[in-house]
Task: structure prediction
Amino acid sequence: MTDVTFDNGKLSTLYLHELWWLASSLIRKADHLFEEAKVPESGYLLQVSPELHSVIASILADAANIKKMVVTPSAKLNGESGAQSRLRK
Result:
């Protein structure tokens, strides 16, 4: 039996598609945020917007999901087989 690697795994394309979708979603939301959150010409006016807070929360969630997909712990996890650990690395 051959070990599954990223190159011969059946879900590799799906993984890359999900990673691309998360990154493009994050960029689109950040562009929207910076278009909507204008710095006032003068003064220190700060307005609270539930819509923009929602966008910020969504951006942070996308960033966290990208990190989970890209960065993996080097130590073997509890209950993980040797093959699963090698695949994750």
About this structure: The chain has a mean pLDDT of 84.
